[in-house]
C-alpha cells in the first residue's frame, strides 16, 4: 500500500522500495500479525545532520504509511561523549521535520538492568566469559581478514569465575580496562565481528541519565539488538556498514530466545552522501569547536539545525528524502538535488517580495518631487487568491547595481544609456544620464518615465520592452541585513580519499550585506520564507529577525547557480 505524501506539492506518492516490499510481504504472510514498528536510534553525541533526515523520513514514513509506530530511541551507551544538549537538539530536529514519536521515547539506558541480567544469563549458558587480556592483547589475537583469530587463554575460564568477576566489575571493584566481558562465539569466523566481540566494558564515568549507578557499560552491538527486541521492533533499519554486524545481532537474540519478546529483522540501506558537505559527527564537532563555523546551527552546515536556519523547510527535506529513495548501493547525491527540492516547495508556497541587494539610486527626472503613488504587486504570480500588496512609487528609487550597464554587453537587456526597461508593477523608464563621483563610480542613474505605461492600467502593457527590473522607493525602503551563503567547501568530496577536509574550506562562504526590502517585511515572522523576486528564496532569521532590524538569510538562488550576487 502507498499513501499519498502529506506535502501539497505535486509529487509522486511515496515510491516503493525494497524495504517497503519486505514489509508488504510480511503483512501478507502474517509474519508480524500486521504489526509494523520501526525506530530511529541516534546516539546523543552530536547534532543530527541531513543524513539522519533520510533515516528519520524512512523510519517514521514507514510507520505512518503502514499504520505502525516509530520509536525515538537514544542509544546512550557511551557516557563520555553524550550530553543532554544533544538529546534536546535531536528531539527538536525530529519534531521540526514533522514527525511525532508520541509515547515512544526510549533510551538504551532504560534497559541497563535487563542488559546486565541477560549478560549474566549468557555467562551462565557458557556463551560469554570475562577476559583478562588488555585491549592490545585482544587485538593481537583477533586475526585479520585473511587469518583466523586465536582463542584467548581466558576463554575457558570456569563459568562461576566469570560470573563472580562480572559481578565485581559491576560493583566497581576494578579500574577501567582491567576486564571486559566477551561473547563466546568463534575466533575462526570469517566475520571479524563474530570473533568473541566485547559486550561489556568498565568505565568509571557519570552517565547523563543513570548518574553513577553504573561503572560497566554495554557495547553498541549487544545493546542495540536487545533494545530493539524489548521494544518489539519488527523491522530494524540501519545503514550498510552494519551489514557485517547482522550475524552478531541475530546471534545475541538467538541465545536469548524467548527471554525477549521478539526477534526483529535487521535490514540495511545505503547512507546518504551529499556533495560539498561533511557529515561525520566527529568532523562536525571539530568545525564547531574550532570555530570554523558559527555554532551548530551555522546556515552553511549540513546539520538539521543549520539547514533549518539557512531556510530549508521540513517539507523540502521530506521531499528530498522521497526523491533520493532507498537502495542497497552507496552513491553520492548532488547538493543541487536538495536545493531543487527547496525551490520546488518555496516556488509553490512562499509569498513574493522585493529586495534590492546591491542598491544604486535611480532618479526619475520628469516625476513630480512630492508625488507618491501605489503600485500593486501580486503575492504569488500563480495564486491570485493570495492578493496583492502595495509598493509605493516615487521619484527616487533603488535598483540593483547589476541591472545597469553603462556599456551594455551583447545580450544585455536591462538598463543602459538610451535604453528603456519596465520597472516591475510600475512604469517604463528610459535612461538619460548617469552621475559619477570623482573616482568615476556611478552615484545615480537618471531616467524619464512614460506616465501612460503604468502596469495594470488600460493599454499600459501594449508597449513591449525587453528588460523588466525590480525597484524600491528610497523613501519607503526598509534597511535590512541580508546574509548570503555559499558552499562551505570548494571540493565536492571534502573528506574522501584521506584528504583533510579542512583544506577545502571555502573562505568566501558567508557574506553579510546591507540591503533594502519592501516596507511590509518589517512584519515578517522569524522563519517565514519569501521569494525575493529575481534574487532567490530567503528566510527571516529565526534568531536575529527584528521588526526594527530585519535579517534575512538566502536559502537558495532561484536557479541552480551558486551564491554570487551577479547570478540571477
Ligand atoms: P557517526 O557520524 O559518528 O558515524 P552516526 O551517523 O552513525 O554517527 P547515529 O546517531 O548512530 O550516528 O545515527 C542514528 C541513525 O541514523 C543510525 O541508524 C544511522 O544508521 C542513521 N544515519 C546516520 N548517518 C546517516 C546517513 N548519512 N544516511 C542515512 N542514515 C544515516
Ligand atoms: Mg552510529
Automatic annotation (TrEMBL):
- What lineage is on file? Bacteria, Pseudomonadati, Pseudomonadota, Betaproteobacteria, Nitrosomonadales
Q: What is its EC number?
A: 6.1.1.18
Q: Which PROSITE patterns match?
A: AA_TRNA_LIGASE_I
Q: State the organism of origin.
A: Nitrosomonas ureae
Q: Which HAMAP family does this UniProt record tie to the protein? A: Gln_tRNA_synth
- Record domain Glutamyl/glutaminyl-tRNA synthetase class Ib anti-codon binding: where: 350-450
Q: What gene is behind this protein? A: glnS
Give the record's keywords alphabetically.
Aminoacyl-tRNA synthetase, ATP-binding, Cytoplasm, Ligase, Nucleotide-binding, Protein biosynthesis
Entry protein name: Glutamine--tRNA ligase
Entry coiled-coil feature ranges: none
Q: Which InterPro entries does this entry report, sorted A to Z?
A: aa-tRNA-synth_I_CS (IPR001412), Gln-tRNA-synth (IPR004514), Gln/Glu-tRNA_Ligase (IPR050132), Gln_tRNA_ligase_bac (IPR022861), Glu/Gln-tRNA-synth (IPR000924), Glu/Gln-tRNA-synth_Ib_cat-dom (IPR020058), Glu/Gln-tRNA-synth_Ib_codon-bd (IPR020059), Rbsml_bL25/Gln-tRNA_synth_N (IPR020056)
Query: Which EC class does it fall in?
Result: ligase
Molecular function GO terms recorded: ATP binding; glutamine-tRNA ligase activity
Name the Gene3D superfamilies on file: HUPs, Ribosomal Protein L25, Chain P
